[in-house]
Automatic annotation (TrEMBL):
Coiled-coil residues: none
InterPro entries, sorted: Dimeric_a/b-barrel, Tscrpt_reg_AsnC/Lrp_C
SUPFAM superfamilies tied to this protein: Dimeric alpha+beta barrel
This protein's name: Lrp/AsnC ligand binding domain-containing protein
Length: 91
């Protein structure tokens, strides 16, 4: 499974509509509106890199109002539960 984090620049007047349309795309798990350098952040999952290569330019970038995307591929996932499990003393 490949996880990609997609940073999305959107025309300001289309942010809510674009966010919902992107959230409805298969393979997109979460969409967040943000303050800062980008308007939206999408968390995506796909079986392989080829599907990410189809998802971002073929679907996310085609949503009306999307101006630009920047895609980051995740290597590993870290969360508090993983850290707790790694350092817990079994019982």
């Amino acid at each position: 499974m490949v996880t990609a984090i997609v940073l999305i620049h959107v025309d300001a007047s289309r942010i809510p509509q674009a966010a919902q349309e992107i959230a409805d795309i298969p393979g997109v798990d979460q969409v967040y509106s943000c303050a800062g350098d980008v308007d939206l952040v999408a968390i995506t999952h796909a079986a392989d890199h080829e599907q990410i290569a189809e998802l971002v330019p073929g679907h996310i970038s085609q949503v009306p109002g999307v101006q630009r995307t920047i895609t980051h591929i995740a290597f590993r996932s870290y969360n508090q539960r993983d850290a707790d499990d790694a350092f817990s003393i079994g019982g």
